[in-house]
Amino acid sequence: MRTLAEPRLPLRPTDSIVTLPIGVIIPVRNEARNLPRCLESLRGVGEVYVVDSNSSDETAEIARSFDATVVQFTYRVGWPKKRQWAMDTLPITYDWILLLDADEALTSQLAEEMRRAIQDYNFDGYYIALQMFFLGRALRHSDASFCKLSLFRRGKGRFECRLKDQDTSMWRSARPKKNICSAT
Q: Kind of pairing, strands 180-183 and 125-130?
């Protein structure tokens, strides 16, 4: 694991090469351990917002070392919660938003699929199949795989947390068969 003193390349190179034109929102609190891997996987995305809930570890410093924009969020009872607040409040530049957790990372295969998917004007959102790992190995024979609506066109719906037995979709969707599952 790297220390804060080690140099890193910024998420957005100085020549402003954007290979994936999306805005990424990462809600965090005390995620110094997970955040570097997540941010490392986001090189080439348009913009990254780390929405921090007053972490007591080095989370904010790590995010800044990757050239992510750090925004503090203090939860007050009721809605909107962190993700929805970020989408409603932050000056997101791009038409597409990706919501990631600090323990998630974008693979090059998924980034390429996303690059193609956001060019399709027939869809406003995509479910992304998550691959779960335990002790460094992918879980293959369990009920631990699922999809979540993580990539969507800005302003086309609201992000909501729902109970497990409720309808969890913002848009209708078929059962996913690959990394990106479309939602109309």
A: antiparallel
Give the integer Cα–Cα distance in Å for 137 and 144.
13
CA gap 51, 144 in Å, rounded: 27
SS3 label, residue 31: coil
Answering whether pTM is above 0.70, one says yes
Residues paired with 70 in a beta bridge: 50
CA distance 78 to 154: 23
Q: What's the pLDDT tens digit per position in 141-170? A: 666 556 677 898 988 655 544 333 333 333
DSSP 8-state class, residue 83: H
Instruction: State the Cα–Cα distance between residues 43 and 106, nearest whole angstrom.
Output: 10
Q: How far apart are CA 49 and CA 51, in angstroms?
A: 6
Cα dihedral 86→2→137→139 (10° resolution): -10
Convert the pLDDT of each residue in 72-127 to its tens digit: 998 877 656 888 899 999 999 999 999 999 999 988 999 999 999 999 988 888 88
